[in-house]
Design brief:
The structure is a single chain. By secondary structure, the chain is α/β, with parallel strands linked by helices. It has one domain: Glycerol-3-phosphate (1)-acyltransferase (3-Layer(aba) Sandwich), CATH 3.40.1130. Helices cover 50% and strands 16% of the residues. The strands form two sheets. The chain has a seven-stranded mixed beta sheet with strand order 1-9-6-2-5-3-4, sandwiched between helices. β3 (80-84), α5 (88-99) and β4 (103-106) form a beta-alpha-beta unit.
Length: 262
């Protein structure tokens, strides 16, 4: 209990300060570039990145697979606007995206959804920029496509383009999204999916059917890449809140087991 109070009332407020976040964001960004520079990276469908460099598009990247696409999109000079949450973690990621040339739009499905939708539609209609978002963020369920990307595509005519990667030398963080961290000197495969369009006058039943179909394709993209390197199968439908609860319950069981042995 003492540790949780220290984190809540002392560490979290400090980590939420802009100056502290910049102190972490700069070295993290440099580390990401260095790791990317050491890797042997193969990008499938480079032509799509080149085609949509200055055209409106909605790039979707699973929450746990943002490390390499961030560098790839910077390498191809994509003029991206990244949708992120107003939570301190989202603001920290926004600073990292800034280091890679991206611009942040703050909002999520649970907070600021209307404003971020309005701003995203405005930018796409204006042209010259693409949107990048995690369809299962910021708190899950994991590998579940929420409706944001669909609405952007429906209201602007911009295609949804899934981007995913996998790597030979990597490890999964102990998080709800199983964030994949690439290690130096890895073999990395980045897959840029084919553009998928959503009709502007699509009806509600068709909209849900289309959402499920796009979700299915995005999950298959991830599974196919992970099979190449024999990685573990990432869970579907995991929420951040559920994962934290499981961790707490697991710690209680371990503590109880130690107590019973005494």
């Amino acid at each position: 209990m003492a540790k949780s109070k220290i984190r809540k009332y002392f560490l979290d407020p400090i980590l939420g300060l802009d100056i502290v976040q910049w102190c972490f964001a700069i070295p993290v960004s440099l580390m990401m570039w260095l790791v990317f520079a050491t890797c042997c990276t193969h990008i499938r469908n480079k032509k799509i990145l080149k085609e949509y460099r200055k055209k409106p598009a909605v790039f979707v990247v699973w929450h746990g697979r943002s490390m390499v696409p961030t560098a790839v999109m910077a390498l191809y000079r994509m003029r991206s606007c990244v949708v992120t949450s107003r939570h301190k973690d989202g603001r920290f990621m926004a600073k990292i995206q800034h280091m890679f040339g991206g611009r942040a739009i703050f909002g999520s499905s649970s907070s600021g959804g209307v404003s971020v939708l309005r701003e995203g539609v405005r930018l796409l209609n204006k042209g010259g920029r693409c949107l990048v978002l995690s369809p299962d963020g910021p708190g899950g369920p994991s590998l579940r496509m929420q409706e944001g990307a669909m609405y952007f595509a429906k209201m602007t005519g911009a295609p949804i383009i899934p981007v995913c990667f996998s790597a030979s030398k990597s490890w999964f963080q102990k998080r709800w999204d199983r964030y994949l961290v690439v290690l130096p000197f890895s073999k990395v495969i980045v897959d840029v999916g084919e553009p998928m369009f959503v009709k502007s006058k699509i009806k509600t039943p068709e909209f849900e059917q289309e959402r499920l179909e796009i979700e299915k394709k995005c999950i298959k993209q991830l599974r196919d890449l992970d099979k190449i390197f024999n990685l573990m199968q990432v869970e579907e439908g995991m929420k951040a809140s559920t994962f934290k609860k499981q961790i707490r319950e697991g710690k209680k069981l371990v503590a109880k087991a130690k107590s019973d042995k005494k």
